[in-house]
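Slide 14.
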Amino acid sequence: KEGLHNSIALDNHLGNPHRKFKTIHVAGTNGKGSTSHTIAAILQESGYKVGLYTSPHLIDFRERIRVNGVPAGKEYVVDFVEKHREFFEPLQPSFFELTTAMAFNYFAMQNVDVAVIEVGLGGRLDCTNIITPALSIITNISPDHTQFLGNTLEEIAREKAGIIKPGIPVVIGETTPATKAVFMAKAHECNAPITFAEEESFIISATPEESGYRYETAAYGTLHGELGGYCQEKNARTILASIEILKEAGFAITADAVRKGFTNVCSLTGLMGRWQRIQESPRVVCDAGHNVGGILYIAKQLAAVKCRRLRIVFGMVSDKDITAVLAMMPGNAVYYFTQASIKRAMPATELMKKAEPYGLYGSAHATVSEALHVALQESDSEDFIFVGGSCFIVADLLAGREQ
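Slide 15: predicted structure.
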C-alpha cells in the first residue's frame, strides 16, 4: 500500500518501538539479503544483540524476524495478532505493514542494541522508512517491480534514494552514471555524507573458491566469505564500506568479528538460498536470484561451471521480466521447467513454450520436487544441477528437503 499512514498509525499504537534501538537501513534491487545478513553477523560477533528484519521468508514466516539469528517465537506471533487485532483490523494494513510493526515491536521487547532493517519494496514509500538509521545502504539498482517503482533506472533510483535521511551517512554499492547522479543529488539535498563502495579500495582481490570467496583486503588481510555467487564480490565491497562508517559512528567492531561474520554468516543468521549447495555427486546448487540483475550474475556463473552436463530446474513468477531473463540463460543445458506452489507462479508448460525461442529446451513438471527428482534420475555423478529462477522455487526446494 502506498504511503506511510498505516505504518505510522501502527507504530504510534505500539509506543514507537523503533525508537528504542539503533537501526541500519538496507535498500537495493539485489544484494539486500546478503548484505543485511553479513552486517548482522559481524555485529553479533562484535558482542551486540542484533535484530534482523528481512524478506521474503523461504520456509517459515518467522525467518523474517530474528534476534542474533534466532527467529521470533510462534507464541509471540500469535499473541501479537490477538492482542492488537482490534486496533489493526479497521486499518486494513498490508501483510508487510503488519509484519514490519510486529518486527519493530519484537526488537524493542528483546532490548536489541541495533537492528538491520531490509526494505521490502523501493524505499521512499516502503513501510520500513519510518526509521532514522545510523546508516543507510543502497546496494544497487536494476529493473524490477517496474509497475510500482518506474520504468527507468533513474526512476527506480529515486524511489530507493528515499531512504536517505538528513545528515545520515549513506553507502551506495553499485551505480550507473544515471543512478549515481540521482544519489548524489539526494545526498546533497539531505546534507548526507555519501560513499560509493565501488570507488573504495577495501578489497585488493576477490577469488571464487570451491565454497564461497576469498578476499584479500587492505584492512583485514584475508577474508573467507561463506557466500558463493559472482554477485558477492560487489556485496563484500558494500559491506566493508559500511563497516568503516559504522566504526566511525561509534560501533565497536573488531577485525576478528569481521572475519568471523564473513566466514559464518549462514550459521550466525540463518541465511539460505545464496548459491547454496544442496548435495554433491551430482552437485546440486540453488540460488534465490529472481530478476534481471540477479539472473545476470547467475547466468555468468553457470557458464563457468565445469561439468559433464548442466541441468537446470527452473521456474518464475508471472510478474517478472521473463523474456529478459530467458535471453540470459545458458542454451547448453537441459531444462526442467516447473512452478512454485503460489498463485503468481507461471505454469511450467507456459514457461517452457516461452523458453523455446531462446533455444532453451526440456520438460515441464508440476512441482519443484518432481522436477528435481527427474533431473537427479537423468544425471550422473559428474553433472551439475541448478535450481532457481524464483525465490519461491528455492522455498519449495528447501521446504521439501525438511519434510
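Speaker note: The first strand starts at residue 22 and ends at 27.
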